[in-house]
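batch job 7 of whatever, protein = DUF2007 domain-containing protein
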Amino acid sequence: MKELLRSTDPTVIAFATALLQGEGIDCFEMDVNMSVLEGSIGILPRRLMVRSSDLLQAERVMLDNEITLGRSF
């Protein structure tokens, strides 16, 4: 699995997931339950992971839909 994007905005993650599923690309959201540690204030980013073999296609889908591939802060 490779990290496709990282964001503190859950709507970006949801939109990216829907786009990837529409293209037949499997993805997995990590760090979903970190809100327990942070107190639900949204400061810890969530990561969206894809298979290594799907990474280039997934990046193209994100860029085509103007989603910034934020992997580091």
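notes: The CA atoms of residues 28 and 49 lie 5 Å apart.
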